Structures are given as C-alpha cells and as structure tokens.
Amino acid sequence: MSATALTNIGSLVTNDETLGNGALGIIEDAALVFEGELISWVGPAAKVPATDQQIDLAGRAVLPGFVDSHAHLMFAGDRSAEFAARMAGGQYEAGGIRSTVAKTRGASDGELESNLLRLVDELHRSGITTFETKSGYGLTTVDEARALKIANRLTPETTFLGAHVVPAEFADDPAGYVDLVTHEMLTACAPHARWIDVFCDRGAFDGDQARAILRAGIAQGLMARVHANQLQAGPGVAIAVEMDAASADHCTYLSDADIKLLAGSNTVATLLPGAEFSTRSPYPAARRLLDAGATVAIATDCNPGSSYTTSMPFCIAIAVREMHLTPDEAVWSATMGGARALRRTDIGRLTVGARADILALNAPSHLHLAYRPGVDLTHQVWIGGRAHRVAS
Ligand code: NIG
Ligand code: FE
User: Fold this and answer.
1) Helical (H) or strand (E) element with 277
2) Which range marks the domain in which residue 8 is found?
C-alpha cells in the first residue's frame, strides 16, 4: 500500500494529550503519514519516515476532520421566508417542520439525493469529514424509509427521526402516530439506520411518548439520541441520560439538575449554536456544562428551519464568541466531542490507527477558526486518505 506523508505542518492537533501540548495534543513542526485509509505515523517533521509521496504543507495547521454529529439533510425546499419573519420579530415553533414535510413528500428520490449531495459537498468544504443525518421530513413509512435508504449510501451515521413532529393527518390522533412510529415505520426504517431520535419538546413529543419511542427503537437494535430542551426546559435531557443515549442535543434550556445529570453520565451534550443564532434564542450554558465535567460536542444541526448552515467553522466561532468556550475547547468539541457523540473511537483524532480524516487549514493554527469568522480557511480535506478538495 502506498504511503503519503504530510510534511512541514506548522501545528498539528492530534487530540491525544500524550503526544503533544495541552488537551489538543498539539505538535509543532510536525508530520503525519497515512497508508490507505489509516494513519500510520505522527511526530516531529525532522523524524518523518520515507514514503512514496510527500505533500509539503508550508507551515499550515492540520487537525482532525470535523465530526458533524447532528444534521437533518433529507429534505426539499427552503424556509427563508420563515427566517425573515423571525428576524422581524416572529418566534421559532416546531410546527414549521410541517411545511418542509409537505415539500419533501412531493420530491422525487433523485431530487432528495441531489439536495443531499449538494449539502454534503458544502460540509466537506467546511472541513467536515464525518456527518450524521436524520430522517424526519417524510413522516410516513414510505417517506421515512426512502430518506434513510438514500442517506445510508453516503454515511453510516443515519438516524430514524419519525418522531420529529406529529404530521397534519394525525393532528387529532397523536397516540395513533406514536403507534405507527413504534411499529410499522420503525420496522421499515431500522435496517437503514444506526440511531433513533425523538424531538421531546413543546409542539412535538412529551416525555412519556419520547420514552416509548426510544424504547421501541432500542429493542430493534438502534442506539438512542434525543432532541432535548431546545424550546423550553423539560424532561428531554433526563430521559436521554436515563436511556444512556449517546447524546442530548440542543440543551438550550437546562436546569441545574440537567447539568448534574449530564456531567455524571455517558451522554454527550451536543450544542448547536447555528440554531440559537438562526432562531435568535439564548445560547446554552456551555461554560457551566464544561465546568461541571460534561462532555460537549458542537454540531451544525443543518436543516432548512432552524439552522441552515453547513459550516463547522461558523459554529466554532459562535461557540467561542457567544458561548464562552475557549478556541481549544471549541475545536475539541467539533472533532473529538462529535466522535464521542457518535460513540466512535476511530475518528476525531489524528493518531496511529485512526482514520485518515484530515483537515489542513490556510492558517498557521487552529485558533484562526474562531479568530477569522466567516472566512473559508479550508486548504485541503482528506477522507479515509482520499483528497476531497483541491488545494487552494
Ligand atoms: O434540530 N428541533 C427539531 N428539529 C430541527 C428543526 C427542524 C425544522 O425546523 O425544520 C432542529 O432544530
Ligand atoms: Fe436537530
């Protein structure tokens, strides 16, 4: 197998404290070698072993590709008018999801797939090398299953979110919809999904419904993650911890008890700053979560309603400026934090044996991600050792 060395790396974020400085395990003047899909060597540039191919990165920063552990990419249409109305004083409500459901049901498989491909290209350009995507805009057995089938061609991290909202045709029979989700729809979707999720919030599903939905999914071999405490304080976080969910996502409105529960659990608090930005909501108490010892991930939440961004650097910049993460914490949360939220150990780090999912920046250090907001700093992305962006 041919080996490629990335040499003359100004600053290499490994996310392994034993390899370099600080929690990010930073090695200055570094090199990295990958063979096929995996990293085979990491260390000081002066000691790089001989390889078939060398790429001189001219002092640029290199970090693990971002892990986007929360996105909703299986949809059609957009909701720019709803965004404009919010910016003029309107409020975000879960009910807006139904307008995307109508558009998505009316789209062909080809349209859904080309919209997905367009968004995945954007994700890669922003430095994301692993992404999760949910269903949740079909809300019939056929529409949810087809979304997951299409998504599963591009990522193993697919999430069944039949419990996004109760669709209009079940408005008078929410219990009937929960029954559909937990039986026929789940059976059709489980073969194409790794995860089950539920939107446990005002205007969506209550605590009892959320528990029933997650239990049914777990019984079919799926692992749990939860949309929790986005619109108001509620039982979502506690249910996520109780069910050993990999992640409680949003966490916009947290009680002291929620913070304590997350800190004492295996459940990652996944923060989605793009959603607070685009819905003009308060930002979550990230500092309190971190100081209590919770594991924090940052993800895009890319979706047409509450957060139509594919840019992890944008989310990092907001997490630093508005949520008071340090730049190091934000980069860790967007890489290793995302890997933890997906219960993956092969990504989110640049160490021997990890996947060669690598981001080289047009900047000398990872600090520039927050320091230069809104600037495209992606120089090159490798996914499983394959270059995905022509260097600029
Ligand atoms: O994560 N909160 C639920 N789902 C999405 C929003 C979906 C939409 O508005 O279309 C979210 O923010
Ligand atoms: Fe979401």
Assistant:
1) helix 273-279
2) 3-65+348-387
Return d(Cα 365, Cα 381) in angstroms, integer.
Answer: 16
Mean pLDDT of 227-244: 98
Q: Which residues pair with 196 in a beta bridge?
A: 160, 224
Radius of gyration of the chain (CA): 21
Distances (CA, A) of 361 to 53, 178, 266: 20, 46, 32
Of the candidates 32, 27, 26, the one whose C-alpha atom is nearest the C-alpha of residue 7 is 32
What is the distance between the alpha carbons of residues 230 and 18, in angstroms, rounded to a whole number? Answer: 37
Closest CA to 199 of 239, 152, 246, 142: 239
Q: Is the pLDDT of residue 390 over 70?
A: no
Provide the CATH number for the domain around residue 48.
2.30.40.10
Please report the DSSP string for 87-110 in residue order.
HTT----GGGHHHHHHHHHTS-HH
Tokens of 242: 């109780």
- The number of the ligand 1 atom at minimal distance from the alpha carbon of 75 is 10
Domain annotation covers residue 260:
yes
Using the mean position of ligand 1's atoms as its centre, give its distance from the Cα of residue 94 in Å. Answer: 7
Instruction: Let me know if residue 392 belongs to a domain.
Output: no
What are the DSSP calls for 128-175, one per residue? EEEE-EE--S--SHHHHHHHHHHHHTT-S-EEEEEESS--GGGTT-HH
Mean pLDDT in residue range 228-237: 98
Whole-model pTM: value is 0.98
Task: Answer yes or no: is the C-beta of 70 below 6 A from any ligand 1 atom.
Answer: no
In a domain? residue 217: yes
Cα distance between residue 198 and residue 165, in whole Å = 9
DSSP string, 195-232: EEEEEESTTSB-HHHHHHHHHHHHHTT-EEEEEESSSS
Q: What separation in Å is there between the alpha carbon of 252 and the centre of ligand 1?
A: 13
Q: What is the pLDDT, as a whole number, of residue 1?
A: 80
